[in-house]
Amino acid sequence: MIFSIASDRDETAARLLEFALRDASETVALAAAHALATSGRAQIAQQVLSGEAGSRAGRIAAAVSLLVTSL
């Protein structure tokens, strides 16, 4: 579902992905971060992740960085 939302380029899709980025499931959050990064909206993911405390944000950012650079 995350990736189908990512194909939409409107504000509603961006807000849904931002919401998903805050999901308790790290898998859902990673998918949302990847979708934001690959759709030209990486700044949203960076803002949300920078506001999170703990290692979760770092793991997600590192994984997205690896995924995006390996494309």
Which properties best describe this structure?
single chain; 71 residues; mainly alpha
Unreliable stretches: none
In percent terms, what proportion of residues is strand?
under 5%
Helix segment tally: 5
The count of strands amounts to: 0
- Please state the overall shape, judged from the principal axes of the Cα atoms: globular
Structural class label: mainly alpha
How helical, in percent, are the residues? Answer: over 70%
Major sheet size, sense and barrel closure: none
- Taken together, the total number of domains comes to 1
- Element pattern in H and E: HHHHH
Distance between the termini: 21 Å
If you average the pLDDT, what whole number results? 89
**Rg over C-alpha atoms, rounded to the nearest angstrom:** 11 Å
How would you sum up this structure, described in words?
This protein is mostly helical and 71 residues long. The protein has one domain (2-69). 75% of the residues lie in helices and 0% in strands. The chain contains five helices and no strands. It has helices at residues 2-6, 11-21, 26-38, 42-50, 55-69. α3 (26-38) runs antiparallel to α4. It is globular and about 30 Å long.
How are the SSEs ordered, and which strands pair?
Layout: H1 2-6, H2 11-21, H3 26-38, H4 42-50, H5 55-69
Helix pairs in contact: 2-3, 3-4, 3-5
Summarize the structure.
The chain is mainly α and 71 residues long. Helix content is 75%, strand content 0%.
